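Re: beginner question about structure tokens

> Can someone show what the tokenized structure looks like for a real chain? I only ever see the sequence side.

Sure, here's an example I had lying around. Input first:
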Amino acid sequence: MQQGERLERAGKIRRGTTCFDRALELNPRDALSWSNKGIAFGALGRSEDEIACYDQALTLDSGFAKAWFNRGVALQQSGRMNEAIDCYAHAVRSDPSYVKAWHREGVALGLLGRHTEALECLDHATVLDPYAERAWLDKGTALLHLQRLREALRCFEEAERLGHPQGASAVQFCQEKLGGGAKAQNPQTR
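And the corresponding structure tokens:
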């Protein structure tokens, strides 16, 4: 399995999947190998095979937070947003400190217009990792959708302070909206 991971990182993904196959022949109950094989399939653009590998990993270890997260990412990329949200929720139930899962769940909820729920997830992400610049930006966007402009501005300012490349434009947009500026345009669509 270690050789498969090394080959996968080196960009030799097809050879990496072969190594994972060998590892799984030796130990078909290795959830980590199934998950890693899923990552390799994802890199090859084989999303259905990728998801099937995560499913196998989760059959073996239903509390495997990273497999839940990766399955959620694959589903989200396939446009299956509600299923992705369920996977992110499983990931944070398995590991409540999983910042990326809280963040991705918040983003997916926001994409579905469920901004109050998105904000709850993004709150968790920014509390767990106060340096997560993208989470601050996305939290500001959720607040913006909820018409909580002053709070949104504080989040955008934090994203800017942390160095997010869209932070300054988000701050400017929010300031213009607060001041009634006519040229305010959503920073996420610029």
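Each token stands for a local structural state, so reading them left to right follows the chain. DSSP finds eleven helices and no strands in the chain.
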